[in-house]
ABC transporter ATP-binding protein
Amino acid sequence: MKTVWSFLSTYRVAVYIALSLTLLELSVELIQPLLISRIIDEGILQEDLSVVLVWGGVMVLLSLIAFAAGITNSFYAAHASQHAGYDMRVALYKKIQQFSFANFQQFPTSSLLTRATNDVTQLQNTIFMSLRIMLRAPLLVLGSVILALFVNWQLALILVVTIPLLLVILLYIMKKAGRLFKAVQARVDRVNNVVQENLTAIRLIKSFTRRDYESTRFHGASEELQNKTITTLRIVEATMPIILLIMNVSIMAVLWFDTTGVQTGGASVGEVVAIVNYVTRMTGALSIFSMIIIIFSRAKASADRIGDVLEAEEYMEDGETSMKLQGEIAFNDVSFRYPGTNKDVLKNISFRIKAGETIAVLGATGSGKTSLFQLIPRLFDASKGSVAIDGQPVESLQAKELRSQIGYVPQEAMLFTGTIADNLRWGKEHATEEELIDALTSAQIYDKVEELPDGMYTRVGQRGVNLSGGQKQRISIARALIRNPSILLLDDSTSALDVKTEARLLDALRHYSCTTFMITQKLSTTMSADRILLFDHGELLAEGTHDHLLETSPIYQQIYESQFGGEADAR
Ligand SMILES: Nc1ncnc2c1ncn2[C@@H]1O[C@H](COP(=O)(O)OP(=O)(O)OP(=O)(O)O)[C@@H](O)[C@H]1O
């Protein structure tokens, strides 16, 4: 909450001006019953028209001032709320950019989306409404009590009893509503999550004919959101009848005390009218309290959720060393488990790779190959042991520098909306046309790209939906190659390629003087590597050339036999 308020303090001048104008508007409103009382007692009852005209004129003039104050207030309220909201979004975006993968484990993507959009908008609206109208309500109540005491303190004592009682009830409901609204926002996260998954996996859903199942999931999440919101609003709405009951009883008590003449000190008609007028205004102000409770409780929940992200501890401290990498990699007794889990997915891994070597990483699904890759660009830190590049522990290297010298092609080829050239320049911002062509040629995709209507400047849809899996893979590889990396990490990135294209690609990669790691399931790939690392259940089972493993590793022999059947028998 504190973090969020700090955004508003930048615009405190606008806030103070808006609040001062609210006070001005409010003062005019509070003076009106006093003037009415004077017009009745000194003008109408005394049949003095000049008093009616003078004070009537003053009332009109004050109303015009209040009108101008209201319009100017809107201007400053909008300025403060919109700018503070903008700053909050920028801060959230920056913070999320700095997040390590461990932080992403803590906040799912859909939740971050809701926080950066829906939660910020809630706060923006609350700031605007607070400066514009909401603060008026409590101030109007306070001012009414004070002025009613000033008009006739004996009659106004009724309010001194009822208002604190009301405040206690309202504070209790507000606290309860705050907790409930946090649960409501969590349901918004869930709906966003289902929608996001549905949109990104739409092809899968259609091909598996899982539309009904996904529809049920969506309706379930939406219904949960609806029910939680209704329950919360019902509790908050219960405040309205309570407020109206207490305030109406107060008006009746004022009239009763006045007519029975008990302890009123002989109130005049004007005084009674003024006090009833104050109580009515207070009832009006208090009746929007249920709305205020909803908005504030919701804003509090949103502010907490935004604060959680902004104050999230960054699990990764950046290193200081900046150097050109050669690409020698050493894992020294490395174990790794994902944050928040209690099982090592890599166990005591040790190996050393010389700069420029081509290494194939082979292993069953779930054996820890991708996890191993993620430790090299420091997407995660090892839980035990050390990962070093050119003799430097990765933790001591500047993460930005380190990552800029690594070409990482993830398992799922991911392209962005824009042209093919845009996607490549995402890897190297100011790459020349020649560099683009070279990278595409090495990735064995230039011929195909040339055939497209606008060549390299053909637009790819969101996530590359108008390209085949193999084409996307090769463009992703070109994007990694264009930065001329010192280390190239290919996570099963040639799985969709036919054997001939793959062989040409691997041949082209030899012209890049980088250390290449290739996760693969295909022995045709491992055969062309300098060395193979064989993984099973998070352990490095064997290490060596194809021929060496074929002789020494029973598991490698089995894989060989399963892929080359007859040929294996012939050996
Ligand atoms: N983000 C994560 N949080 C927790 N556990 C994870 C996470 N990602 C992967 N794992 C677990 O870590 C283990 C190793 O996964 P990893 O992705 O490294 O295997 P892999 O060998 O690359 O598999 P595949 O060949 O199927 O891609 C698996 O048991 C998996 O369930």
Observations:
- The radius of gyration is 35 Å.
- The first strand starts at residue 329 and ends at 336.
- Residues 338, 341, 345, 363, 365-371, 411 surround adenosine-5'-triphosphate (CB under 6 Å).
- The CA atoms of residues 335 and 560 lie 28 Å apart.
